[in-house]
Amino acid sequence: GSGKTTQFRRLSDAAKARGIPLCEVREPGGTTVGEKIRETLLARVQPGMDMSLRCEMLLYMASRAELVERRIRPAIRGGELVLADRYVASTLAYQGAAGGLSAADISAVARVATQNLQPDLYVIFDLDETAAAARLSPLLDRMEAKGAAFHRKVRHGYLDLAKGDPSRYAIVDASKDPDTVWRSLCATMTERTAHLAPKR
């Protein structure tokens, strides 16, 4: 409900318009195996198909491992900008802060799954859980349907990650209209990625 998908699309379109080689990925999914895992993770719960939290975390990591191996590392080697719709921070927020798994356990699995590949920048589109819920489709997937208390913990999990590593995380106020959020995102990207620009 934060408008992340809308802003992701605008950022992608802006990069393409400037001729920047680009690789876009989403989580879970993005590969043949990953999309099968996505179907399992986000399907509405069926009788007998509820999964343990640890299983859930490991499935996200399995999808991520395939994505890093098949898509992200080859794109980086080819000089492409990689835009990822979610990454390890999501697991730390959802299965960690909200679910109750330890950050240490999640980080240990993440190091194996991603070969310790970390993004230059995480952008968090911050919106309180009440406003976010009002924007969501009534046809909620399994993660969206977990309720306000769960999503409040998710939000605070993301904010705590940003507080703990401000050099790698940027927070954008997502409570405004899409154009205002876009201007804020552009300003944030300009400020936080200037040092990543190739030397001419």
Task: Jot down its keywords.
200 residues; mainly alpha; two-stranded parallel ribbon; two-stranded parallel sheet; 8 helices; 56% helix; 10% strand
Q: What strand line-up does the widest sheet have?
A: 1-2
Beta-strand proportion: 5-15%
Termini separation comes to 39 Å
Overall strand count? 4
Sheet of most strands: 2 strands, parallel
What would the principal axes of the Cα set say about the shape?
globular
Order of helices and strands: HEHHEHHEHHEH
Please, what is the average pLDDT?
Answer: 90
Gyration radius, to the nearest Å? 17 Å
Approximately how much helix is present in the residues?
55-70%
Q: What are the segments in which pLDDT stays under 50 over at least 5 consecutive residues?
A: none
Helix-strand makeup class? mainly alpha
- By DSSP (H or I, 4+ residues per run), the number of helices equals 8
3D architecture notes:
The chain is mainly α. The mean pLDDT is 90. The longest helix is centred in the first third of the chain and has 25 residues, at 53-77. The strands form 2 sheets. It has a two-stranded parallel sheet. The chain is globular, with a radius of gyration of 17 Å. The protein is 56% helix and 10% strand. The termini are far apart. The chain is built from 8 helices and 4 strands. It has helices spanning 4-17, 32-42, 53-77, 88-98, 103-114, 129-135, 148-164, 178-193, and strands at 22-26, 81-85, 122-126, 169-173.
